[in-house]
Amino acid sequence: MTDALKIGIAGLGTVGSALFRAITTRHNMLADICGREIVITAVSARSRNRDRGFSLDGVNWYDDPVAMAREADIDVFVELMGGEGDPALAAATAALAAGRHVVTANKAMLARHGVELAKLAESNGVLLNFEAAVAGGIPVIKAMRESLTGNSVQRIYGILNGTCNYILTRMQRDNLGFAECLAEAQRLGYAEADPAFDIEGNDTAHKLSILTSLAFGTQIAADEVYVEGITNISIDDIHAADELGYRIKLLGVALKTGTGIEQRVHPTMVPKGSMIAQVEGVTNAVTIEADILGELMLSGPGAGGDATASAVLGDVADIAKSRPGHQHAPALGRPAAKLEPYQRAQIQSHEGGYFISLKVDDRAGVFASIATKMADNGISLESIVQRARPGGAADGPQTVILVTHATTESKVRSAVGAIKGEGYLSGEPQVIRIERTREG
Ligand SMILES: NC(=O)C1=CN([C@@H]2O[C@H](COP(=O)(O)OP(=O)(O)OC[C@H]3O[C@@H](n4cnc5c(N)ncnc54)[C@H](O)[C@@H]3O)[C@@H](O)[C@H]2O)C=CC1
Ligand SMILES: N[C@@H](CC=O)C(=O)O
Ligand code: NA
Questions:
Q1: Which residues of this UniProt protein bind NADP(+) (predicted)?
Q2: What is the CATH number of the domain that holds 411?
Q3: What are the residues whose beta carbon lies below 5 Å from ligand 3 (ion)?
């Protein structure tokens, strides 16, 4: 048998601990599959003495993950600390520069520094694997990097954040409040160390920017994503969507338009009968529309210790199975030097249907005024309904809900701005984009 593959793990939290357990409890099975043992020889985390339910005896401990990446006797540095900057970045950089393979689940770091890390991996002849960084356990990176080679992608979209999908599902299905659902997602190990990354949409944006690069062969452009999170989505919105035949999902969408590539993350209405609407809880899904393949949808566990560790383990096992001289797919699907500059298509030119919910004064002419502002901006309406006041109350603002036919973001913004100027609105209008799916 070839020499053992020695790995060092930095970060022994939700994912690192699950990985540690998976590797140590499946040692013989992995050795049979890979033709060599996989041995954890070094670890680094914040607390050496924390009870994690397994022993670190015989494993070299490093207080400093960068020192471990640079100095430890390891072949693979597994980065599971998180954070877009140091020490994760310094450690990954040090490991690649020292000729060690890197496996990471850190989408925040890759979204900012993925291209430079990919270049460093290429120039040092080592691998940068990151399956766990996008859609957790779903093998979407491998699919895009390897199986879709030669396809031209038109659109890629999906549910990329387990925490948000868990929250939206529990709110819709069980009528629970936002804060309670978020606390559950945190307890289950789905949320980021700072859950604002999840609920404000940044985590989805990080993942989307990585997928965009793989799909369209462009530089990763995380700052060029239009982002709205789910913090403004209320149970009322979820119920209104339900009545109209939709579910609300936080989607990341990237597509080619006439002016460039549109990258957007926002709460989205999808038809209730569509496949993506059926994706519930922590489950993620990615749909890829490609010219040779057609449409592919991958779905599976998007977060959680074991599901994420499964993807990390797959990446480590790929390295264990590889032999000297074997040529690997580049980290971002093509040599980093061949990635094209990213050309942004602005959100204002986005085309699609819209759901608009307005709280308005209950007086004559308001309904007609709303319809007129829409028509003035060239927006055609699929429906406009006035909803009964909650609990049958006799006074207070009325809710008017509009669903538009396909139009543009700039027209919707202009119409909503004009309605706001009329003085009959209470609170901010709720505007939710509707995404076209295979089913409608
Ligand atoms: N939890 C999940 O479901 C998923 C997490 N990820 C990513 O995996 C990575 C790890 O996530 P979790 O395990 O959930 O986080 P966590 O917060 O549970 O664990 C992080 C670990 O890193 C250690 N750490 C942090 N800073 C350190 C430092 N300066 N020096 C040494 N150790 C340090 C902590 O002590 C802890 O052991 C993150 O990049 C996260 O975005 C990716 C997919 C899913
Ligand atoms: N916080 C993330 C973890 C996986 O990437 C999520 O909820 O999806
Ligand atoms: Na994945």
A1: 10-17
A2: 3.30.70.260
A3: 131, 135, 138, 311
